């Protein structure tokens, strides 16, 4: 249909970038950037004020101890983006470590075979969570609180007060090894990096990942767009169970110990890292780079404070305060965006009033 507006009165054609914020604001005015900036600040403070990164040992121990949190945070990010949560991951760690120890010490299995069965057990635990949440429709918070107690109870019931130690030295050396001779980085960073790249591509560059975000924004709308909501949630919980089992195996080999309470409290560090990294607890928003930065921030901050002789309970208070602040900041920033108009976010021009300049009908109409 031909426009009746005279050329001098027509609005210029506006594209999508015309209504978006400038690139600098889109990159810098985010929670992820704030976490990275805070991480850099803590790193610089630790370097300047304590003997933290001077020797090759300290960075090694930082990444070695943080490895289970980094591993489990990867699938946990996708779960929380969908608006769900998994509080049972630490219990899965403990149960998997106990299963591997029992098969090795009591049944005489090799470490690879026992570890493979332990990963299968963790996958089954994740499948139980996924089935109850996705297909039965139960709330994930209630389900995973229940399975947290269930899996931990099974682990304690299998071992009692027994602590299994004395894992084969060659497998312990592999878990404790460095990337290269004299390197500051443990070998476990290699599988963590591979998994991080896989989850990064899965979440941000595939249709499956777009479905994860759509579920977090509105699961009913996601169904209408063709997303299999139930299958997606089920798969994510299975991923979480399998990765938590790997973390439990690594934990048992590194610390040469497997017992019923292995990994206890790890789920809180994982959730803190995910939320601190910019993932919304309400779902629909988040990015893996921010989560990795959040996990590193918690590790660096904890290590730096310990070297300053700060007690663990005080460190927990600081990390808890950061977690609460990260959750509140999302709501505060959302409210500010609603009240303030950021540069470059122009509203589309209203249509001209009927009978205004340039709307006269052509002669002979």
Automatic annotation (TrEMBL):
The keyword Disulfide bond does not apply. CDD domains: TM_PBP1_transp_AraH_like (cd06579). It is a multi-pass membrane protein. GO terms for molecular function: transmembrane transporter activity. The keyword Zinc does not apply. Its main location: membrane. Residues 346-356 have a biased composition (Pro residues). Residues 344-365 are annotated as: Disordered. InterPro entries: ABC_transp_permease. Pfam families: BPD_transp_2. GO terms for cellular component: plasma membrane. Keywords: Cell inner membrane, Cell membrane, Membrane, Transmembrane, Transmembrane helix, Transport. The chain crosses the membrane at residues 23-45, 57-81, 87-105, 112-135, 141-164, 185-205, 234-258, 270-303, 315-336. It is found in: Cell membrane. This is Autoinducer 2 import system permease protein LsrD.
């Amino acid at each position: 249909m031909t426009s009746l507006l005279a050329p001098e009165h027509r609005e210029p054609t506006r594209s999508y970038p015309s209504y978006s914020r400038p690139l600098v604001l889109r990159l810098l005015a985010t929670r992820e950037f704030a976490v990275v900036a805070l991480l850099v600040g803590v790193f610089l403070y630790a370097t300047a004020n304590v003997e933290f990164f001077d020797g090759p040992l300290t960075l090694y121990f930082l990444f070695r101890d943080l490895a289970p949190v980094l591993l489990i945070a990867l699938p946990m990010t996708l779960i929380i983006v969908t608006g769900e949560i998994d509080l049972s991951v630490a219990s899965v760690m403990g149960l998997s470590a106990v299963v591997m120890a029992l098969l090795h010490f009591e049944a005489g299995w090799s470490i690879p075979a026992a570890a493979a069965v332990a990963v299968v057990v963790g996958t089954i635990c994740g499948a139980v969570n996924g089935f109850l949440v996705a297909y039965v429709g139960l709330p994930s918070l209630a389900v995973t609180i229940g399975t947290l107690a269930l899996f931990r109870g099974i682990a304690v019931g299998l071992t009692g007060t027994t602590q299994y130690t004395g894992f084969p030295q060659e497998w312990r050396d592999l878990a404790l090894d460095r990337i290269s001779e004299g390197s500051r980085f443990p070998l476990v960073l290699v599988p963590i990096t591979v998994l991080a790249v896989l989850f990064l591509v899965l979440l941000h560059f595939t249709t499956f990942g777009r479905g994860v975000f759509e579920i977090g924004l509105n699961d009913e709308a996601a169904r209408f767009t063709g997303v299999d909501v139930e299958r997606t949630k089920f798969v994510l919980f299975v991923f979480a169970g399998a990765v938590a089992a790997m973390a439990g195996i690594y934990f048992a080999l590194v610390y040469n110990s497997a017992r019923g309470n292995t990994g206890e409290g790890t789920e809180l560090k994982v959730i803190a890292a995910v939320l601190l990294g910019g993932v919304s607890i309400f779902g629909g928003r988040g990015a893996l780079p921010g989560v990795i930065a959040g996990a590193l921030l918690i590790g660096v901050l904890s290590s730096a404070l310990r070297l300053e002789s700060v007690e663990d309970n005080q460190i927990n208070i600081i990390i808890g305060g950061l977690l609460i602040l990260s959750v509140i900041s999302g709501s505060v920033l959302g409210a500010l965006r609603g009240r303030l108009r950021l540069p470059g976010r122009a509203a589309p021009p209203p249509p001209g009033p009927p009978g205004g300049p340039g709307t006269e009908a052509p002669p002979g109409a």
